[in-house]
Design goal:
Low-confidence stretches: 249-255, 294-298
Strand content: under 5%
Structural class: mainly alpha
Number of helices: 14
Helix content: over 70%
Largest sheet: none
Distance between the termini: 36 Å
Mean pLDDT: 79
Shape: flat
Order of helices and strands: HHHHHHHHHHHHHH
Length: about 300
């Protein structure tokens, strides 16, 4: 295999290939090691972690942090709420974003430039926190599950990605051919454009999924009913309550209590990110193809 790799390559090419492989390995370690460290730190003695004694393997393994997180009934309420907000919100996002992007990609749709300007304007200017809160209160979105879904129904960045895909990958000649067979715009969008758009649907779907899963600010500002709080707020409260108990535990506050508070901190990071890390490999093939949509044409 090594001989086949070296065949037909000059010494300079071989040196460059070796340098490229080493560079990729370094980049991989830079990205992967922090994630690995969080995993081993979540089950290691925090005193050893703080002293730099935990580098490659966990020491004094304990799963107390995870048991403390999962024995709290609030965690399951948060998971349930976040799953509802994430799946429901992503479905609503795609339902509004894809038709809007398709309409804005059609050259015969005359108001598209004006509408695109108005959409883009909202990326740079907004009403501010207080006016937004008053508006949500007026339309009864405060303390409602819909506050996680309706205000973020369309993300302009994702709308631009989808519009660029439809412009560059769905030729006008395809619609003209379908039109000769009596196909309407709506039928063309449902039966032809969408089946050809798996890549862009996966990309913006993943973007929306991560956006809803990590939504911390909405629950913090607009929701007071704890039964409707997302996972991120629940994990924050568990973390803060354990840090407070560790800090106020007298002599235990600097040792035993702090040890488990740190384990809970690292465990909360894993609990909040693991579902997204599990989903990503199954969508990677579409993501790799769709992330460069609209970047080049021809």
């Amino acid at each position: 295999m090594l001989t086949k790799w070296r065949k037909g390559k000059s010494t300079g090419d071989l040196v460059f290939d070796v340098f490229l492989v080493l560079m990729c390995l370094v980049l991989f370690l830079v990205i992967a090691y922090p994630m690995y460290f969080i995993v081993i730190a979540s089950i290691s003695d925090s005193n050893m972690v703080s002293r730099g004694l935990v580098t490659l393997f966990p020491k004094n393994i304990s799963f107390y942090g995870f048991s403390k997180i999962f024995e709290d009934s609030r965690i399951w309420i948060g998971y349930k709420n976040t799953l509802i907000y994430t799946l429901g919100g992503t479905a609503v996002n795609l339902l509004f974003t894809l038709p809007a992007a398709f309409a804005l990609s059609r050259s015969e749709f005359k108001p598209r430039k004006l509408l695109m300007f108005l959409f883009t304007f909202t990326m740079f200017f907004n009403g501010g926190l207080i006016p937004t809160y008053l508006l949500y209160k007026q339309v009864n979105l405060i303390d409602s599950a819909w506050v996680f879904i309706i205000p973020s129904a369309v993300n302009v960045y994702n709308l631009i990605i989808a519009r660029s895909f439809f412009e560059s990958s769905i030729p006008d000649s395809l619609y003209e051919a379908a039109q000769l067979d009596g196909c309407s715009y709506f039928k063309f969008f449902i039966k032809i454009a969408l089946p050809l758009s798996k890549a862009v649907i996966s990309v913006i779907g993943l973007y929306y999924l991560v956006q809803h899963w990590n939504d911390f600010f909405t629950g913090l500002i607009y929701v007071r009913d704890y039964d409707k709080q997302p996972l991120q707020i629940v994990l924050r409260d568990i973390l803060l309550s354990n840090q407070a108990s560790a800090g106020g535990a007298g002599s235990l506050g600097d040792g035993y209590g702090q040890q488990f508070a740190d384990q809970i901190k690292y465990g909360a990071i894993i609990v909040s990110t693991l579902p997204i890390l599990v989903i990503y490999p199954f969508m990677q093939k579409y993501f790799d193809k769709g992330v460069m949509i609209g970047a080049m044409k021809g």
